[in-house]
Amino acid sequence: MEKFLTELGNAVAKAFKEAGYDENLGKVTVSNRPDLCEYQCNGAMAGAKIYKKAPIAIANDVCEILKNSEAFSTVEVCPPGFINLNVNDKFLADYISKMAEADKLGIENPKESKRFIIDYGGPNVAKPLHVGHLRSAVIGESIKRIIRYMGHEAIGDIHLGDWGLQMGLVIAAFKEANPDLVYFNDDYTGDYPEEAPFTVADLEEIYPKASARSKEDAAFKDEAMACTKKLQDGVRGYRALWKHIINVSVTDLKKNYDNLNVEFDLWKGESDVHDVIPGMVKYLKDGGYAYLSDGALVVDVKEETDTKEIPPCMILKSDGASLYNTTDLATIQERVKEYDPDGIIYLTDKRQELYFEQVFRCARKTGLVKEGTKLVHIGFGTVNGTDGKPFKTRDGGVMRLEYLIKDINDKMYEKISTGREMSEEEAKKVAKMVALSAIKYGDLSNQASKDYIFDTERFMSFEGDTGPYLLYTVVRIKSILKKFTENGGNPEECRITSEISNASHKNLLMKLSAYNEMMEGVFEELAPHRICSYLYDLANIFNSFYHETKILSEENEELKKNYIALLNLTLRVSKDCMDCLGFEAPERM
């Protein structure tokens, strides 16, 4: 199904052609002066240069033909040559009616489906998720859902930090406290216990202490490095203990990500490419890409067009140790080999922009990716407290994500259960859904690259540009449709007609008509904040329509059914938008 602006553009392009001008001048946009008109075309301005003719003369020629178009109710020329357009009610209503009947609201599947891998999450095992992990999870999940909604394949990979010194620190500290366990007995040949000798709470205590100690105790750091080497060399006991660390951590991570309604298709980590690295390094050397610089192995990635210094991409340190660059490049190589993606999308802090520029250039220059494979880094800003500084706990520590979610759930439960006749079970379920919308919409409504203030009270408000306000609007629609059904009606049998009763009715139709255009732009830009903006506008326009229109009390049955069909479509659009953002509305609030 064509986008609505495309259909309007086709009508104007046809008029340009009939008037003797290039039809490509007939592009139509939403008016930037809604007080004057609904849509506009500025093609006559561009045509003036081509045809050496006054733009107002071209516009007048086109308008003479457009006055007979079924698409527009009024067509006017505004000096020096703008064409102001108001859409015909029937043309608009007919489009919305087709949209309501179409699969997926008229969004067509692509001619060729593409495959994308989204690298989001990136937590380190043995450490709890904190508020800094919120954005990668929430934005990445939304982008994955958007890609799938638009008819493409999306594979989400958590990409765990499960290798390197941090593992050695945990093992060294655990070994010091429990030296007699079989994991540290080199002569032991039996099976290792199936149950981990520690809990996630133990790991969360072990790691920070071990990390802090390594900065002051050189001998302990040396021991941790020795443990890291034994792990990476495949010593049985160390590998067995490492697997326990992974299993305990991943179980806890899944619980926390479930609370955010975030799911990963792949639970891979840096360790998955450990055995791939030597072959990749050999390939880079043999291909003449990598060379030694001050003992380190590097690949030049600077380009002649650079306006700033781009350092070489380091592959191995002077002591032969690998780096994040190494594992990320090896991961790219493996992803290409296993999944042959059309694009790989990374979600990290925007301060890593230079790092990813180096890695992407290196991957392209060395042929680790195919020429047409897109490598995209979406750098996001920080989550700040109301003081404008990075979000902290009251005592100044980094806020754990599970505590943040629980705090908002508890506050929302208190809000939901006050003054409402609702069972405790239902109140908790509803509170969790509303709290999730508050968290996710509070994040996603901001452009990813921008820092934002996590204002709990504002995010939880049922008024204004918030998730709960959007849910409240959807619940209002559900309530009306439910009452209509209880009175013997069937919303699915109602159809949108060309009768438009007031300005807010037409505004709602026009906003719905922009849905496909909006979603295509969201996909092209990978910009969930555009869905948020659309959804908020849609909610405001619907609420204006609701307050200005008798819906269930409308005596004209055909007009009432027209309204119900419109509500049903508004609900479908809202639910699809919310699903792309990663939350949903309850039946009542």
Describe the structure.
The chain is α/β, with parallel strands linked by helices and 589 residues long. Among the domains are: 4-87, Arginyl tRNA synthetase N-terminal domain (Gyrase A, domain 2, 2-Layer Sandwich), CATH 3.30.1360.70; 165-259, no CATH class. It contains 20 helices and 13 strands. The chain has helices at residues 4-18, 43-51, 55-66, 89-101, 134-149, 165-177, 200-214, 218-232, 236-259, 277-286, 324-339, 353-365, 401-417, 424-444, 456-459, 467-486, 503-513, 515-525, 528-548, 557-581; strands at residues 29-30, 39-41, 72-78, 82-87, 115-119, 153-157, 290-293, 296-299, 313-316, 343-349, 374-380, 383-384, 452-453. The strands form four sheets. It has a four-stranded antiparallel β-sheet with strand order 1-2-4-3. The longest helix has 25 residues, at 557-581. 41% of the residues are buried. The mean pLDDT is 96.
Q: Quick recap of the structure?
A:
The protein is of the alpha/beta class and about 600 residues long. The chain has helices at about 5-20, 45-50, 55-65, 90-100, 135-150, 165-175, 200-215, 220-230, 235-260, 275-285, 325-340, 355-365, 400-415, 425-445, 455-460, 465-485, 505-515, 515-525, 530-550, 555-580, and strands at about 30, 40, 70-80, 80-85, 115-120, 155, 290-295, 295-300, 315, 345-350, 375-380, 385, 450-455.
